[in-house]
Design a protein that fits this description.
467 residues, alpha+beta, Cytochrome Bc1 Complex, Chain A, domain 1, six-stranded mixed β-sheet, globular
Amino acid sequence: MTRLWTRLWLIIAACVSLAGAARGQSALKLPPHKKVKLENGLTVLLMEQREVPIVGLRVLVRAGSVADPAGKEGLAAVTAELLRRGTRTRTADQIAGEVDFVGGTLEFSAGHDFTSGSAEFLKKDLGVGLELLSDVLRNPVFPLAEVTKLLRQNIDEIKQQKDEAQGVIGRYFNAYLFGAHPYARPATGDERSLAKLTRADVARFYEGHYGPGATIIAVAGDFEAGEAERLLREKFGGWRSGAGAGAVKLADPPPASGRRLLLVDKPDSTQTYFQIGNVGVARAHPDRVGIALVNTVFGARFTSMLNDALRVNSGLTYGASSSFDERRVAGPFAISSFTRNATTAEAIDLALEVLGRLHEQGLSEEQLGSAKGYLKGQFPTQVETPRQLAELLAELEYYGLDEREVNDYFARLDAVTAAEARRIIREHFPRENLVFVLIGKAAEIRPAAAKYASQVEAREIVRPGFD
């Protein structure tokens, strides 16, 4: 417990120290870092940050849910979760006990594009941390009992999540929006696909996708780069695998044309949850900073146009927002909110009215200035701890970006004019071509849903899956 409290206070100190330093300058600058390519193909990124004696690590493996075989959605996520459930030399309990003993953290998960691992250890325990990280990455054995238990837990969790529409509407929206594209797949799987998975599937996925050539390890914090590189070579230099280094090839998803609507019937629901949107942009899109700026005004903060209209001024909901999920290729753009069944049409109409106002009026200089100040104030808190810096380094490497993502950020914000904002609105905030997904009591909200699309498709939430 003492180690955990020590680590907590050190993290707080790191946040205060780094945030204060970042806010004390007119623009951020990413600290220098070193990139090393080991002989086996492993990419290593090292950034020394000596403010506090903590080291953050980030692992990216180029295999996410887009690599799941058809009908076996959730395989990448299950494989990632099982890495900590037993190796050739350690049981799941032993791994957990060794991580806890030094007050560290070690966890894995899979998203759409990649599998990620995050770890954090005190400076003095870096060798222990790298030993544990190496063991779970290189030597997992996927014990049958752990596979069976995890699959059962995940299936039960999905069933429970369907009792709260807010937790699953994004998965219905993705499936309906992306159709046959791999981004339609639920990253964590569904009741049908998880029930089909076996230990052999997990082992086969690991053998086919995990390997040094497919992996990035970023380390940031209080260490000496030469010593850290030596430790990484010692722990990972002998890793050999036939897994390919390249990620699964992905085509750009086609944007939806016209308007279409999916109504998911939840007969006991007293509220309607809805998402409205289309295909958005990729993580490396040239307009990404301008899009974030416009979206801050439109729906990405509490004082946004959407939240003002739907929550503050009308009281139709407790929250309304908009988001761009930027991935390796274009991810979804979605307006999200919820309201009482009786006010479903009123809330959706108002959301569309705000979207129309964004197109017709654009953004004023005052709105742009406020959003620029907001983003400049928020950004330092996202890149201040060793763990955050390691995550940033790994993802910049994965998406083919560089230090300009940080160093030029403030300047790129300042360069967005009202005219540029209008172009971004026109090109990236769809107004006519929209996909609607509603979850609610169909018997009460079907007439409201019918006004937004000529054809309404229906599903029952109790039906397994999200498609």
